[in-house]
Design a protein that fits this description.
The chain has helices at about 10-15, 70-80, 95-100; strands at about 30, 40-45, 60-65, 85-95, 110-115. It is of the alpha/beta class and about 130 residues long.
Length: about 130
């Protein structure tokens, strides 16, 4: 199993800024390796998703990149079944080439977005 860490750094920063101590890590595998242009697979949740934690809560989903939106879409569908008070999303980068050709771009719009890019992004903490 590949450890999940794509959104760890932005999540940590934002949780401190919002003074939010309750942070849940959702283990989702999407790429087969850390290599640039790594092959992608359908999003796969590992472990259990503590859905009861979302009931009646404001939820902010944070990740480093949104490309096709498949991971985010699957996640919000699961969380919506738990009757959260609100679901919002924050991404550092939106890969416009992948996102705009995805059928999900019509229904998914990030609430907070850092930048738009047209290629693979390598973050400083990945080098």
């Amino acid at each position: 199993m590949t450890p999940q860490r794509g959104g760890f750094i932005p999540t940590s920063i934002i949780s401190h800024k919002l003074d939010c101590r309750e942070v849940l890590v959702i283990d989702v595998k999407r790429t087969l390796s850390d290599e640039i242009y790594s092959e992608k697979v359908m999003p796969e949740f590992s472990g259990s998703l503590p859905l009861e934690k979302f009931q009646g809560k404001k939820v902010l989903f944070i990740d480093d990149v949104i490309a096709t939106g498949e991971t985010f879409f699957l996640l919000i569908q699961k969380i919506k079944n738990c009757n959260p008070k609100e679901i919002k999303s924050a991404f550092l980068v939106q890969n416009d080439i992948e996102f705009n050709k995805s059928h999900l771009s019509i229904v998914l719009k990030p609430n907070y977005l850092g930048i738009n890019a047209n290629d693979w992004v390598v973050f400083p903490w990945e080098q």
